[in-house]
Amino acid sequence: MLKFDINKTNYKKIHFIGIGGISMSGLAEILLNRNYIVTGSDMNNSKIIEKLINNGATIHIGHNSKNIEDVDLIVYTSAIGEDNPEYVFAKKNKIPMMDRATFLGELMKSYKDSIAVAGTHGKTTTTGMIASILYISLLDSTILLGGELDSIGGNVKIGDNKLLLTEACEYKENFLKFNPTIGIILNIDEDHLDYFTGMDHIKDTFKKFNNLSLEGGYSIVNGDDENVKTIINTAKNIITFGLNSNNNYYATNIKYNDKGYGEYDLYINNKFIDHIKLNVIGEHNIYNSLSAIAATFISGVDIKTIKEGLKIYKGTHRRFEDKGIVQGIQLIDDYAHHPTEIKATLNSIGDKYNKIYCVFQPHTYTRTKSLLKEFGKCFKGSDKIIITDIYAAREKNTGIVNSKQLVDEINKNGQDSIFIETFDEVVNFLEKTVDKGDLIITIGAGDVYKVGDMFKTKINK
Q1: pTM check: above 0.85
Q2: Is there a catalytic annotation at residue 167?
Q3: 310 in Cβ contact with 277 (< 8 Å)
Q4: Which CATH class is domain 13-100?
Q5: What contacts 201, CB < 8 A, 6 or more positions away?
Q6: 137 phi and psi, to 5 degrees?
Q7: Tens of pLDDT along 294-325?
Q8: Mur ligase N-terminal catalytic domain location, by residue (predicted)?
Q9: What is the CATH number of domain 321-459?
Q10: 352 is catalytic
């Protein structure tokens, strides 16, 4: 098996296929900081790519075999197909290649400790919370985030070689290629059913991930999650968190202020530790914060610093992001793309708005098809649900499902939903319909966030 040690120079020039991705760009930035020659390619330009170019990377827009003729190692994202011309050329000419997850797993070996945040929901938020704590702590950590966090100036922060923090995605079992000393499992739910055969397959994969961090490290798991309970063992280095007092880390006396921000009393092993205040909404973020506390506390961060780090964390971009108020209409954007996430997001809003207009862009055909009934029930609390075309991401439209079927499923459950195909048409509809005191929330992992920006531009003209 191919190995990579960032402290050695076996590979001086490294090329990233799909370098504009949030994780790929972070890896590229780490290598640039270590004086590697970094090249890359992607289909479209972006702010992330421009930042890498300014830091010394050579990046081609468009994929071409000529881009990789003199490179020592290729790192590729699983989002590319095997017909990608650079992938085909590299394979034919036996240029060393690693997929992104394998490369990150190898990189983790270069750090004394590493925290990997896994779970079907909440990975980016929890990683952001931990990042905020580490950023103000004495630990000079390297951070790879699946979103953008203002306090660290984007999606990556370069630190020393003592601690690496990263998200750990279960898709295609990629996180089994990692080498964490602290593994976190936030929750386990049905998702990525274009790869997994069902819940048993998903739980078995998380069980293997759980065992990775138990080899000399710690596994921090949600002790209230029914699916998580079935995959953990009773090893002494299992640490549980939740709202029940049988967990190692638990929250009690939970309250929410008028903005929906939570606060609670923190107990560790049945001992009162301190009162914690958050600047993000909802019960799901109580859970996320407990796992962040556990991970940083066992890493040596004191409770006072942990409290301050959680208090300054106000969310990463696209995670219940406040996009402003325009003519009395509140705009919010959220990355939720699974029924459980959507339900949690909408439940967190409260009753301070006259009407809630939810604009949802389904993400991938297989997820929409396999969870159609669940999607039909998760929009409770919305007064009007606008469904746009499905965002294909890595998939091709085979006709297995469409957005109108989702509209029918939602309406069957007694809600008011309509299909509007294009963003321009959505904005036109909203302009004629919403009033002062209403909320427009865009939801989805694709590019639906553009609707809020377009609405704001049009209204302000």
Answers
A1: yes
A2: yes
A3: yes
A4: alpha beta
A5: none
A6: -90, 180
A7: 999 999 999 999 999 999 998 777 777 888 89
A8: 13-111
A9: 3.90.190.20
A10: no
